[in-house]
Amino acid sequence: MDFEDAVERFTEYLEFVRNLSQNTVSSYTRDLNHYSKYLQEHSLDYRHVKRRDIERFMKELSQGYYSASRLSPSSVARHLSTLKTFYMFLYVSGTVNKIPTDLVKAPKTRRRIPEYISYEEIQKILNAFPETHLGKRNRAIIALMYYCGLRVSEVCSLTLRDISLESDPLVRVKSGKGDKDRIVPLTPDAISMLTDYLGYRDKFPEANR
User: Fold this and answer.
1) Cβ neighbours of residue 117 under 8 Å, at least 6 residues apart?
2) Which of 8, 143, 145, 173 has the fewest Cβ atoms surrounding its Cβ within 10 A?
3) pTM above 0.70, yes or no
């Protein structure tokens, strides 16, 4: 089986077995197109490459070969991840008898420091919501995310039973990070905005969150 046929079978596996999105499959395909150019450049058979061949491919990617410009360490690491998945597929399907990417290490990448919204900025956002049912609801949602650290999916899964505004205000987050429930204390700002919204929502029977 030549390389093009192997890539076609691999992309079918990604689409129909793993059910990956078209954008993700296209990303794999682009990486493998770069790898195809490398194989042709060095007259290599994809079934017989060795660890040093993969490492040379990564080095040449970082130097600007096979693409319009030099690739960043994170892009090179993504190419390696693509090849690991590709060769694992070939190994399981019996096309190759070893995985040349096994001991290849990805280049070190610099972790970007997250940018945080300042207190002044979040106040401007919260004050921009109108004094309507939806405005109060959205303000409460933003407050839970900013003041209590909840994720969007966690906020969307909340029900009234998960929120307590009594003597020990808290919110119960179901199946959060790590698939574990957790208890999150409510801050005074979050309590104020939740109380405002929940007091207003009774006027709108269709509101159920």
Assistant:
1) 125, 146
2) 8
3) no
For residue 109, give both structure tokens: 């990448």
Domains defined for the chain, CATH in brackets: 3-92 (1.10.150.130), 119-201 (1.10.443.10)
Q: Which residue pairs from 193-197 have beta carbons closer than 8 angstroms and sit at least 24 positions apart in sequence?
A: 193/126, 193/136, 193/139, 193/140, 193/143, 194/140, 194/143, 194/144, 194/163, 194/165, 195/165, 196/136, 196/139, 196/140, 197/136, 197/137, 197/139, 197/140
Output the six-digit token pair for 22: 């078209």
- 3-class secondary-structure state, position 173: strand
Q: pLDDT for 70-88, tens place per residue?
A: 888 889 999 999 999 999 9
Nearest one of 51, 97, 47, 106 to 73, comparing CA atoms: 106
Which residue is it, tokens 């046929």?
5
* Contact of 71 with 65, CB cutoff 8 Å: no
Q: DSSP states of 27-94 as a string?
A: HHHHHHHHHHHHHHHTT--GGG--HHHHHHHHHHHHTTTTSSSPPPHHHHHHHHHHHHHHHHHHHHTT
**What is the CA angle 76-104-17, rounded to 5?**
75
Query: Tokens 């909340």 identify what position?
Result: 158
The model's pLDDT over 13-47, given as tens digits with 9 standing for 90+, comes to 999 988 888 999 999 999 999 999 999 999 999 99
Residue 11 amino acid letter: T
